[in-house]
Amino acid sequence: MRITLSRLASFTPKLKELRIILGSGDASKGAREYVQRFYPNLKKNNPDLPILVRECSGVKPRLYARYDNGKEVSLSLANQEAPDIHKNLEAVGN
């Protein structure tokens, strides 16, 4: 599956924060590639949404989404390719 820039849509206003945690190992390879390729356009399409990307040693990659009602969702990004990560972002952003 090829990800195009036109598919990077704006997220729901209920989403208040995205955090992408990257580990230093190979399990974060797909997540790191996704961030490098698509973060600029994600931010461009969602200028008021805080999108935090952090790299930590000794952790598995994860995606955290925080919503306006205080609910937080966490998904593993370990060993996923960029298209799978895009699907996860679409799922938490809608």
How is the topology of this model organized?
Layout: E1 15-22, H1 29-45, E2 51-55, E3 62-67, E4 72-76, H2 82-93
Parallel strand pairs: 1-2
Antiparallel strand pairs: 1-3, 3-4
Strand ordering within the main sheet: 2-1-3-4
Strand content: 25-35%
The number of strands is 4
> Mind telling me the C-alpha Rg?
12 Å
Series of secondary-structure elements, N-terminal to C-terminal: EHEEEH
**Sheet of most strands:** 4 strands, mixed
Shape: globular
Structural class: alpha+beta
Estimate percent helicity: 25-40%
Q: How far is the N terminus from the C terminus?
A: 20 Å
Low-confidence stretches: 1-7
Polypeptide structure, described:
Residues 23-94 form the Ribosomal protein/NADH dehydrogenase domain. The relative contact order is 0.29. The protein has a four-stranded mixed β-sheet with strand order 2-1-3-4, covered by helices on one side. The chain is built from two helices and four strands, in the order βαβββα. It has 94 residues and is α+β, with helices and mostly antiparallel strands. The protein is globular and about 35 Å long. It has helices spanning 29-45, 82-93, and strands spanning 15-22, 51-55, 62-67, 72-76.
